[in-house]
Amino acid sequence: MPDHDVELSRAQWGSRFGFLMAMLGAMVGAGNIWRFPYVTGENGGGAFLLAYFVLLLVLAIPGLIAEVAFGRYTGQGVIGAFRKVASSRGMVGLGVVVLVVNVALMSYYAPVVGWTLYYAVHSLLLTFTSAGFAPEAFWEGFRASGLLSIGTHTAVMGLVAAILYLGIRRGVERLVIYAVPGLVLALVAIMIRALTLPGAADGLAFTFGIEWGKLGLGQTWITALGQVLFSTGLGWGIALTVGSYLPDYDDIPIGGGVFTVIGNSSVGILAAFAIFPIVFAFDLDPGSGASLTFVSLPQVFPQMAGGAFWAILFFVGFFLAAFTSAILITEVSVTTLSEETAFSREQTVLGVCGLVWLLGLASAYSPSTLNFLDFVFGNFGLPLSTLAIIGVIGWSMGHRGPEKLRVLEINRNAGLYVGSIWGPVVQYVIPLVMLLIVANYAWANFGTPEMIGGVAVFFGIPALGYALMSYVEGRRDSLSRENTR
Amino acid sequence: MLGLSLDVWATMLFCVVAFFGVSIWTLVYTLRQEERKMALLNTERDLDTYSPRALSDLKDWIETHPNPTHPDVEAARSAHNDCVDTLQSTDRHFYEWSRADVDRLDTL
Questions:
Q1: Predicted TM-score of the model (pTM)
Q2: Which residues in B lie closer than 8 A to residue A259 (C-beta atoms)?
Q3: pLDDT tens digit sequence for A423-480
Q4: Quick check: ipTM above 0.95?
Q5: Is the Cβ–Cβ distance between A42 and A287 less than 8 Å?
Q6: Cβ contacts (< 8 Å) between B77 and chain A: which residues?
Q7: Which of A187, A275, A276, A428 has the lowest tally of Cβ within 10 angstroms?
Q8: What is the rounded distance in angstroms from the CA atom of residue A455 to the CA atom of residue A453?
């Protein structure tokens, strides 16, 4: 086959910068802005950051290097990647687990992205600085209106479909190379303004003051573990998918590991520098989560000089953070299903986005459904997906499996040498830590409907995936045998 | 702002160095590496794919594999030999290979 045909058979990132921004855009989401600064301040500030930093180095960087390398090694979406290394038909079903978790995650994340879109549009319409604007009534009115929630959810899925329809280079890459730097610049500009407000120092003292005693508490480390594993998107299939489009001559350890993990955390810290000085300067409640973003901050912008400008920067930046993640989360399913079915990429984009839109209607309409799914899939589904991917890399790749990935893929064209200590981290440490986190969530919520739902997801989806792929792969084998006769 | 305690300043400095500093440094470093790779490809027409340590690890993995005819071993051997051939046929390398190191290399 001529070279150009090989290239056309599967897309690749057009530039190194495009790959780096895709990784960062995927991992930086709403949580970096509204959750990370608060979690840091509540859990010992500087002491928490130290624990967090250590865990990033020990777990997140090795884990993401493994996932990106696995993607490039197989050159496939999640199910194809699992098929390439799995020892049995049913094990391919673990790919289905990752797929189902991604679709479920996107079904309740899309309405949240819809909130950010609604606020970004209203910031551009200068609503937040108009006379008589009442933030709480505005937020409550929006959440109470099923039509508005469903409308913004629909708009988000339409935009996601439009970007994905254009493909990896013309759609995803073209968006992230502008959106991610745009988000960072917006946060830097807000940070400069925030740090010059009277009272800003209290916000910095809350986030960055050190309570050394908290470093000795198990809860601090559990929280840091959760933050490390959830904020970096480790094992969700995103890094695998992004890695599957990475050219052979590109480096993995620096781009897929160090830059993505530290860069993602840097955006969270930038948000702490940008938002918490404002929160304390205007005496807001730092722990109010979503309502901090959608009720408290809009209250503040009219009181700031040039408030409309700061509101636009904040809400457009916030939308970009959430939207780029939505694009890459959906890409996991699009890449996988376009490979696994006879549909073209364009048809798959429409099918996947249509399915996510349909499933997301419940979360868009009902906040309690959204909260339930967020708890169940956030605390049980995502760790399950991580266990599936890291488990396959650690235990299903044949003779000295992780070592094979390290010598063949990770250290090839690498900008940073990865030593053999990486193998045991992937094989033992990350899976054990994930199990510990899930057990901790189950114990802390024992007997609640959320815990029961979570346990059902944790055991039910793998069983479903195993049964489904045992059947599908068996049928595939028999069809292929018939064709060769 | 000047009234902030020393520990707050220390944490902020740590964040600036460990997070912002490392992010920016790795971004610039990896983009420059990419430029170097492209420049080498233009002048040498080929690129060494493994550093000395990485190539030694690869060789060790091939030699200790229990099944020398396994497709993975074939792929690994091919990757090893391609790198050796490139190192021996080019003058400038991406990784820090000395002439003596290159002369000692053999294909498998």
A1: 0.92
A2: 23, 26-27, 30
A3: 999 999 999 988 988 898 889 889 999 899 999 999 999 999 999 998 888 888 888 7
A4: no
A5: yes
A6: none
A7: A428
A8: 6
